[in-house]
Amino acid sequence: MAKEKYSDNQELLSKFANALGNPVRVSILKLLAKQSCCYHGDMAEELPIANSTLSQHLKVLKEAGLIQGEIVPPKTKYCINRENWNLAKGLFMGFFD
Q1: What was the pLDDT predicted at 25?
Q2: How far apart are CA 1 and CA 18, in angstroms?
Q3: 3 in a domain, yes or no?
Q4: How far is residue 24's CA from residue 49's CA, in Å, rounded to a whole number?
Q5: Does the residue 57 lie in any domain?
Q6: Lower CB count within 10 Å: N or C terminus of the chain?
Q7: Residues 21-28: contacts with CB within 8 Å, 24+ apart?
Q8: How many other C-beta atoms are found inside a 10 Å radius of the C-beta of residue 88?
Q9: What's the number of CA atoms in the CB half-sphere (13 Å) around residue 73?
Q10: Residue-wise pLDDT tens digits, 1-49
């Protein structure tokens, strides 16, 4: 039996949904959506989690393409990846229509 092929949109929607599957990551995105960018240390002060845990969640969001990071030694600055943010928004809206 052949494995079912999923569309690119289905794969992408699943990747975004997986990244949103944790309340900490939703909180990170809400925080970043309110401003142009935010440093890792500033987020650590806002969110009730350990620095290492925050790093892991940021990694998941970055791998999903929902955020992007820029290293400005000795800090890392994160912001929403607007192109993928809008793509995710459209995919979710289409899914729920």
Answers
A1: 96
A2: 27
A3: no
A4: 9
A5: yes
A6: N
A7: 22/57, 22/60, 24/49, 24/53, 24/54, 24/57, 25/57, 25/60, 25/61, 28/54, 28/57, 28/58, 28/61, 28/67
A8: 22
A9: 0
A10: 556 789 999 999 999 999 999 999 999 999 999 998 999 999 989 899 9
Structural domain includes residue 4: no
Within a domain: 1? no
**Rounded distance, CA 67 to CA 26, Å?**
12
End-to-end CA distance of the chain: 32
- Residues recorded for the chain: 97
Question: Which DSSP symbol is given to 82?
Answer: H
Residue 66 is given by DSSP the state S
Instruction: Answer for the pair 78, 67: CB distance below 8 angstroms, yes or no.
Output: yes
Domain housing 24: 9-96
Query: What does the pLDDT read at residue 4?
Result: 77
75 close to 39: Cβ distance less than 8 angstroms: yes
